[in-house]
UniProtKB/TrEMBL annotation:
GO terms for cellular component: cell outer membrane. Residues 1-22 form the signal peptide. Belongs to the TonB-dependent receptor family. Keywords: Cell outer membrane, Membrane, Signal, TonB box, Transmembrane, Transmembrane beta strand, Transport. Its main location: membrane. It is found in: Cell outer membrane. InterPro entries: Beta-barrel_TonB, Beta-barrel_TonB_sf, Plug_dom, Plug_dom_sf, TonB-dep_rcpt-like, TonB_rcpt_bac. The lineage of its organism: Bacteria, Pseudomonadati, Pseudomonadota, Alphaproteobacteria, Sphingomonadales. Residues 435-833 form the TonB-dependent receptor-like beta-barrel domain. This is TonB-dependent receptor. It is a multi-pass membrane protein. Residues 55-166 form the TonB-dependent receptor plug domain.
Length: 869
């Protein structure tokens, strides 16, 4: 730890770029007046000062990140920008930030300008693992489309419900936010070290006004292209095993080594037209479109041990902390290659009209949101008979050693064709398609009245019609070595080159040829459901068609007064929401699929109150009490079952889920030490009822008896939970130092979140300790930043009642920028400078030797030229 802190301190003046982050609070976009020119800020200090001003006027607890300049947030990825906020932790998938956890809870609502952007995340993982239907992933849209990011930690009644831990609002710029015609553009190149590629990125914004300033137009966009290479140890889990004895131990079942190459492109376009029909009335029409195309190629080799909870599978076992971490077993070798295409789009179209004459406000807002996914997968798998002897050892790290031999004791070479049998049932081809569509129509109507003497009243209603439909198509076929001969390859000798260890580096694999695979599987398993020719066999057991309607209403008031001569502000209200949904799926009975409809309906009352006291001109004390909810994801609500025969797992949903309700208390202080400097602290407590968690067990699935016992995962309202903790943060420029040292500054924050469910287990995705250290420098044309983020270990799932944990990890990023003149600036960035510290390591039951997976990401370097007129 000391070495890392010294490293951060040593590069303060070398590589850092303008971090526009403040621990602050802001009113929601729909409830605040954005000052003209709000988006146009100057440098790090300008953005920090702007955030501090928003904070002082806030009626709730919320942190803000503002852009240093037009369309220029401090990180290219929205989730990675949010990780700098006190109390926020992020989840990384395939080397990129994807989701956030706020104050110990991962159930967070994400919206754009107070609306829902539906979409399938760019995380390149199966959609059934995502909390779909509520919002898109934070990595689904480029960050340059937004002028401000808001992290709401305490709600107000006028905000949309949905988010136990809080909500994130991504604010897009509007034409009337600018004082003059503005044009900005940036070209950037990014080098990914693992993929060894240098790829382009482009972004731009144009806004102007017409008709004497009564009509404004704005359009912005960004295109990103990035290739990545990840090195992985995957798929292992430690399960209960007697291993021929009488004492239960935990033994590994599957050791898989994998290299993943990802080719991702993102396109985002945002546009807005505003018309000021009168001094009191403004009409706004806007739209946002995002497209992410993620293509992935996986090459892997796996050693599969027999499945048994009682038999002596592992000989010469070495046991540490009741886990078998070394030994020898006889099983099979499976190698394969997968190609996967995940094109996903998001569309959001909205119309807003607002009338404000100073006393009365009337606002109507309506939008349409749509997200689509058209996933395609082709796989070639080669497998031996159960006659390969594997000796494994987890003790040498970071991933287990694996030495392969024949039953006779000779070395086994997995790169030889002769070592794979000619049995066609062990040589398989598989093709999957998974089209999914999400749609939402929503409208709201709000009225407000300023009664004078600091009292304001507000009320409103909101109606949402949400639908989600997912279909699955899957066909497979056996092959022969003769069939596969043109597509076989002995692999890459540099397999997992950056991970030390003694395991197979080269092995025989098949290269997926889409036409070859699809033609073969359609011959063997054609679609017989009346779909068009060339369509894969329908896998209807995985389908769902869901419809959810919600009607919400709220009453709220704001009041200002004095107590002991000091200003005090109060915001209080109640939100009532009714939810009604139905879902159509199929249930499997033997070889039959029977249609099934499930319904659910519930009403929730959510009160909230926020009090702000100006103890002095620069010291604010805030007290908040509220209740929040989080509806389950659509895939969680669909009771359809998906069985992964390759990995012997099964996942299903649960239509009976009810939304968990969190009762929240928050006490915070904010002390402003300057226009762009502040110290903040908070203590918080959350009590959650009907918490949703994934139950994992082992069972034989009807219709899949040939797989034997498989791991079954299903969500349930299984527990209550409590989260308590505190957070502290400081943002400070060292103005008291002589020039040029007065350009230095620091942002530092620490969060403690102690979470437990009613069984005493920590909550999923919550680290007890996390902190950020950001060193800043801005003087004249030079700006710089170095940012270090660290979070403690966190549970990610439970298997057989035992927690599976993501070990502690950190990331170091650095940037430097130089303003060439008033119009042009140059920036250089370096991300993930210490890859081994940022590796995602999953372990069993807090045992550091019991590795379930290890994912090593790469360094990235970017250089960009920016122009603004």
């Amino acid at each position: 730890m000391k070495k890392r802190l010294l490293l951060c301190a040593s590069v303060i003046g070398i590589m850092c770029h303008g971090q526009a982050l403040a621990q602050s609070a802001a009113t929601p976009t729909q409830d605040s007046e954005v000052a003209e020119g709000d988006i146009v800020v100057t440098g790090i200090r300008g953005s920090l000062e702007q955030a501090a001003e928003i904070k002082r006027d806030a009626s709730q607890v919320l942190d803000v990140i503002t852009s240093e300049d037009v369309g220029k947030l401090p990180d290219a990825n929205v989730a990675e920008a949010l990780q700098r906020v006190t109390g926020v932790q992020i989840t990384r998938v395939f080397g990129e930030g994807q989701a956030v956890n706020i104050r110990g809870l991962q159930q967070v609502r994400v919206e754009i300008d107070g609306r829902t952007l539906l979409g399938f995340s760019a995380r390149v993982s199966p959609p059934e693992n995502d909390n779909l239907g509520r919002s898109s992933g934070l990595d689904a849209v480029p960050s340059s489309l937004f002028g401000r990011l808001e992290v709401r930690k305490s709600p107000i009644a006028s905000q949309v419900e949905g988010g136990l831990g809080g909500s994130v609002n991504l604010v897009t710029p509007k034409p009337f936010d600018f004082k003059k015609t503005t044009l900005s553009a940036q070209v950037q190149g990014t080098y990914s070290e693992g993929a060894d590629k240098f790829e382009p990125g482009f972004s731009g914004l144009f806004t102007t006004t017409l008709a004497g300033g009564n009509i404004g137009i704005l359009i912005s966009g960004e295109y990103q292209k990035r290739s990545s290479s990840l090195q992985l140890f995957e798929r292992n889990n430690f399960f209960d095993s007697l291993n021929g004895g009488t004492t239960k131990k935990f033994a590994p079942r599957l050791l898989q080594y994998e290299n993943t190459d990802i080719d991702r492109s993102r396109l985002g376009i945002n546009g807005s037209i505003q018309w000021q029909a009168s001094p009191e009335f403004v009409l706004t029409a806007d739209g946002l479109y995002s497209k992410v195309n993620a293509k992935r190629t996986n090459q892997f080799i796996a050693f599969n041990m027999p499945t048994s909870a009682t038999a002596a599978i592992i000989t010469n076992p070495v046991i540490e902390d009741n886990h078998i971490v070394a030994g020898t077993a006889t099983g099979n070798i499976r190698t394969g290659n997968q190609r996967r295409d995940d094109p996903a789009t998001s569309l959001l179209l909205g119309l807003n009209g607002k009338y404000d004459d100073g006393a009365f406000t009337i606002e109507a807002d309506g939008y349409y949101s749509r997200g689509t996914l058209r996933q395609k997968i082709e796989v070639v798998t080669l497998q031996t008979a159960n006659n390969v002897v594997g000796s494994f050892d987890f003790r040498n790290g970071p991933i287990p050693d694996l030495i392969l031999k024949t039953a006779g004791g000779a070395a086994y070479d997995p790169s030889l064709v002769s070592n794979f049998p000619a049995r066609t049932d062990l040589l398989t081809l598989r093709a999957n398609t998974l089209p999914g569509t999400l749609e939402e129509w929503a409208g709201r109507f709000d009225v407000g009245y300023d009664a004078g003497d600091g009292i304001k009243l507000k009320a409103g209603v909101r109606y949402v019609d949400l639908s989600g439909k997912s279909e699955a198509f899957r066909s497979r076929a056996d092959a022969s070595m003769a069939d596969l001969a043109p597509y076989l390859d002995t692999g890459n000798a540099n397999f997992l080159k950056d991970i030390a260890g003694n395991f197979p580096r080269q092995f025989l694999t098949g290269i997926p040829d889409a036409k070859f695979i699809i033609d073969r599987v359609l011959i063997v398993e054609p679609n017989q459901s009346g779909d068009p020719p060339g369509t894969l066999r329908r896998n209807a057991a995985r389908d769902y068609d869901l419809r959810e309607k919600t009607l919400s209403g709220y009453l709220m008031f704001d009041a200002e007064d004095e107590i002991f001569g000091r200003p005090i502000r109060v915001n209080a209200g109640v939100r009532i929401t009714n939810t009604d949904f139905s879902v159509d799926t199929f249930t499997q009975q033997g070889n039959l699929l029977l249609p099934r409809t499930d319904t659910n309906k519930y009403t929730n009352v959510l009160p909230s109150a926020n009090l702000t006291l100006n103890a002095t001109d620069d010291l604010l004390i805030r007290l908040s009490a509220s209740q929040t909810l989080q509806r389950a994801g659509l895939a969680e609500l669909a009771p359809s079952t998906f069985v992964d025969a390759t990995n012997r797992t099964s996942t299903s949903g649960n239509a009976s889920l009810t939304p968990p309700i969190s009762s929240n208390l928050d006490l915070s202080i904010e002390y402003y030490t300057g226009k762009s400097s502040m110290i903040s602290g908070a203590v918080f407590y959350k009590s959650v009822q009907d918490f949703i968690a994934t139950n994992t067990s082992e069972a034989i699935i009807p219709g899949f008896e040939s797989l034997g016992v498989v791991r079954v995962s299903r969500p349930d309202n299984v527990a209550s939970a409590k989260v308590k903790g505190f957070e502290v943060g400081v943002t400070q420029f060292l103005d008291f130092l002589p020039s040029p040292l007065d350009g230095f500054g620091v942002i530092a924050n620490y969060t403690f979140a102690d979470s437990k469910d009613s069984n005493g287990f920590p909550l999923v995705a919550t680290s007890k300790h996390s902190y950020n250290l950001v060193a800043l420098y801005e003087k004249g044309p030079l700006s710089a930043r170095v940012a270090y983020n660290w979070r403690d270990d966190a549970v990610f799932e439970f298997i057989q009642g035992r927690p599976q944990v993501i070990a502690a990890r950190s990331q170091l990023d650095a940037q430097i920028g130089f303003d060439i003149n008033d119009q042009f600036s140059l920036s250089v960035q370096a991300q993930n400078l210490i890859p081994k510290d940022s590796a995602t390591v999953e372990i069993s039951d807090f045992n550091p030797l019991a590795i379930n997976s290890y994912a090593l990401s790469e360094r990235r370097y970017s250089i960009g030229l920016r122009a603004k007129f």
